[in-house]
Task: inverse folding
């Protein structure tokens, strides 16, 4: 478990960062590259920050094999800001958009988009998240400005095991806040991929946007400059003071991903970590249970119940208490869902998941009726 100060952080975000990155940041915090100044104190127009900004964009391009006709942008406002930005930049084309609502965040995105145009839900919103309706049932509009989905629902533990087929070939938009850099992705199939960095690729404060060039240039008049993708592109993501510290740390995390096998390495480990946890749940004789349809279970955010199918409140409270004594933190499920949730982002190691699994097995031995 590392040294005595290292916790096992299974939080959904802001999430665990690679320890090596934090140590590097710590070493440079007071004086960046012997300048005698912290990166936090430097101008966003300085040569130092200009290089960091460029290197971070370049790393995203390399890691995801981003085609040349796409731009990589950084903005602020979090994923929720992204919900509005997507609509204000793209909805103008036809005035309506298609949304696939599979959980909390896609529902929130659809609600936000309604302020800027007509939103068509391609299938009815489920009463209880945990599934993705078969694509043959989707009702997509050939006239939609774009088709939007959330690749991985952080709260609900639902992940798309495929890229939607997008029958009318409208621009496909994906919120990949929690799945970016955890698996290979064919960027050329998308109009826009965006998300907050604070789960797999950095700290909170910066949003990445990967956008196909032909989608620039048509924002709504009401779109603020700081959310206008065309404007952000023209200013190379430094129209005003960006979240310089966040971008600086993100650039280091991206370099760490490269050094650890790239996206392929992260994907392999993601599969190993999630398989181990799901196997433990499956082999627990229903002491632990997953409420999510097996074919769409997330590799990244894994909700589960303790003490039988619906969960047992007393046992779940005890589970959290005992886990925290072992320095396993943030395992409580989202308030809207309940139960437990283990988030297995890139910086969470297989060793961390092994420790969790060992604890789960011991807890079951003690408390299974």
Result:
């Amino acid at each position: 478990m590392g040294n005595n100060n290292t916790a096992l952080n299974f939080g959904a975000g802001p999430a665990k960062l690679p320890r090596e990155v934090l140590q590097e940041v710590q070493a440079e915090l007071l004086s960046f590259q012997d300048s005698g100044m912290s990166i936090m104190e430097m101008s966003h127009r300085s040569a130092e920050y200009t290089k960091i900004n460029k290197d971070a964009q370049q790393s995203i391009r390399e890691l995801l094999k981003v085609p040349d006709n796409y731009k990589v942008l950084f903005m602020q406002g979090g994923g929720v800001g992204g919900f509005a930005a997507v609509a204000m930049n793209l909805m103008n084309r036809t005035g309506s958009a298609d949304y696939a609502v599979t959980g909390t965040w896609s529902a929130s995105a659809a609600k936000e988009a309604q302020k800027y145009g007509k939103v068509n839900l391609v299938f009815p919103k489920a009463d209880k998240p945990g599934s993705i309706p078969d694509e043959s049932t989707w009702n997509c509009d050939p006239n939609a400005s774009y088709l939007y989905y959330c690749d991985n629902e952080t709260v609900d533990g639902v992940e798309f095991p495929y890229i939607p087929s997008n029958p009318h070939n409208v621009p496909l938009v994906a919120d990949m806040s929690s799945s970016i850099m955890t698996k290979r992705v064919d960027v050329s199939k998308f109009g826009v991929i965006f998300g907050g960095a604070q789960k797999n690729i950095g700290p909170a404060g910066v949003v990445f946007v990967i956008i196909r060039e032909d989608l620039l240039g048509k924002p709504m008049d009401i779109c603020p400059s700081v959310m206008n993708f065309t404007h952000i592109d023209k200013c190379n993501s430094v129209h005003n003071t960006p979240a310089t510290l966040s971008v600086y740390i993100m650039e280091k995390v991206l370099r760490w991903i490269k050094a650890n096998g790239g996206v392929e390495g992260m994907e392999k480990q993601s599969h190993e970590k999630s398989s181990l946890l799901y196997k433990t749940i499956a082999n627990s004789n229903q002491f632990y249970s997953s409420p999510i349809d097996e074919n769409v279970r997330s590799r990244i955010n894994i909700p589960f119940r303790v003490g039988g199918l619906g969960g047992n409140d007393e046992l779940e409270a005890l589970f959290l208490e005992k886990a925290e004594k072992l320095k396993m933190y943030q395992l409580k499920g989202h308030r809207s869902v309940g139960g437990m949730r283990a988030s297995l982002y890139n910086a969470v190691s297989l060793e961390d998941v092994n420790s969790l699994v060992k604890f789960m097995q011991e807890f079951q031995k003690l408390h299974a009726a």
Observations:
- The longest helix spans residues 262-282.
- The longest strand covers residues 70-75.
- The mean pLDDT is 96.
- The two ends are 30 Å apart (CA to CA).
